Amino acid sequence: MVEEILGFEPDGAGGHMLLLVEKRGANTGWVAAQLARHADVAVRDVGFSGHKDRHALTRQSFTLPLPAHHDLAQCLSWRGEGYSVLDAQRHGRKLRPGSHRANRFTLRVRDLQGDRIALESCLQQIRTHGVPNYFGPQRFGRDGNNLRRVLEWAGGTGAPRERAQRGFLLSAARSQVFNEVLAVRVADGSWNQLLPGEAVMLDGRRSFFPAADIDQTLVARARSMDVHPSGPLPGRGESPATGLARLPEDAARESNAALIALLADERIDHERRSLRLPVREFEWEFDADSSLELRFVLPRGTFATAVLHELLREAWDAGEGGED
């Protein structure tokens, strides 16, 4: 189960209707098209903040441009195969991608086998220290197809015609480089520690600051999850990391030179992403039927599969291009 947390309340007035929609077995884009059909508006005018797993039971928000006299009760009657509208409120603006704050997950792992004591210890470590902030396998497409296609594009096969498809492929390229850097930091044990020359990321924000030296104040802030080490989302411009923190980034740039050149050609700017993912409100429960229920909140743009990766031997290998 995935519940989107917007982080703000509906305005109660304005030219849009903010809908809370429950869906299962339906992807977000398809549901947006069904809502557009109900409201007799263009699909491009439907707003939503993020894509949610097709196979999960999810609750997320959509906006539709509807006049003030439109009947709220009519919106609550909108439903179809795999989706239904649970709530409708007036709102002043269209939802844009990335406008929600977080997602609340409930996951059940079935047929669980292994050392219960060791698993409990791992769960406690996750609660205290978070997990490596890998991009999950869904970022790379089914069987890693997005990564394969962007490598072909970088090799000279030509760009996809559709803008949205180009965006998916470029995101896969950036994610691959980031995951490579993170895997090196995991291997040397520094994924949750600040290194000299770190571009230090503020928790819950995209802001960062360079730190040539790591003093005790920064060490304490990192321990309290106030700041995190960061890795590259490559593109145009130099990495702000220097010193020891820069070494794995330079290695990843060299091994992915064609992808990084493509990102620069496509006018994608260099950005930063936290190497560490705090797992908030983390709770778990073992059931008698050899299953484990996990409940936690993650910030937008992060992956529940990163949490499972730390728990399950059969989870995907982050070093294999994100393939499941």
> What is the share of helical residues?
25-40%
* End-to-end CA span: 20 Å
Named at the architecture level, the CATH assignment of the largest domain is 2-Layer Sandwich
Count of alpha/pi helices:
9
Q: Output the helix-strand order.
A: EEHEEHEEEHEHHEEHEEHHEEEEH
- Strand percentage: 25-35%
The coarse overall form would be: globular
Number of strands: 16
Number of domain modules:
2
**C-alpha Rg, in Å?**
21 Å
CATH top-level class of the largest domain: Alpha Beta
Q: Which stretches are poorly predicted, pLDDT < 50 over at least 5 residues?
A: 319-324
SSE-based structural type? alpha+beta
**Largest sheet geometry:** 9 strands, mixed
Q: How would you state the average pLDDT, rounded?
A: 92
CATH superfamily of the largest domain: TruD, insertion domain
CATH topology tier name of the largest domain = Pseudouridine synthase
Account of the 3D structure:
The protein has 324 residues and is α+β, with helices and mostly antiparallel strands. The protein folds into two domains: 2-91, Pseudouridine synthase; 140-276, TruD, insertion domain (Pseudouridine synthase, 2-Layer Sandwich), CATH 3.30.2340. The protein is built from nine helices and 16 strands. The protein has helices at 28-39, 72-76, 116-129, 145-157, 163-187, 216-223, 243-255, 257-265, 304-311; strands at residues 2-5, 16-23, 47-48, 58-65, 79-80, 83-91, 102-109, 131-132, 198-202, 208-211, 227-228, 230-233, 271-274, 276-277, 280-287, 291-299. It starts with a strand and ends in a 13-residue tail after the last helix. The model is unreliable at 319-324 (pLDDT under 50).
